[in-house]
Amino acid sequence: MKNKRFNLLLIAVVTLVAVWSLWPTWRDYTYSKQLNSFGSTQDSLKYVMSHREEIEDARKKSLKLGLDLRGGMHLVMEVDQVDLFEQKAWNKDAKFSTIMQSVRAKAAQSDVRVIDLLVGEFRNENIPLSRYFYDIRNSDQEIVKKLEKESEDALNRAKEIIRNRIDQYGVAEPVITTQGSRKIIIELPGVSDENRVRNLLKGTAKLEFRLLREPEVMVRTLDRINTYLAQNSLPVPAKAPLPPDSASAPAPQPGSVAAPPASKPSSANPLYDLVGIFQNGTAYTSEHSRELVLSLLRRADIQALMPLDTELLLAAKPDVGKNGEKLYPIYLVKKAPELTGGVITEAKATFGSQGVQPEVLMSMNSDGTSKWARITGANIGKRIAIVLDGAVYSAPVVQSKIPNGNSVINGIESLEEAKDLEIVLKAGALPAPVRITEERSVGPSLGADYIRAGIQSLAWAFLAVSVFMLFYYKKAGIAADIALVLNILIVLSVLAGFNASLSLPGIAGIVLTIGMAVDANVLIYERIREELAEGKSVISAVTQGYDRAFSSILDSHVTTLSAAFLLYTYGIGPIQGFAVTLMIGTSASLFTAIVVTREIFHLLLAKNLMSEKSFG
Question: What is the pTM of this model?
Answer without folding.
Answer: 0.55
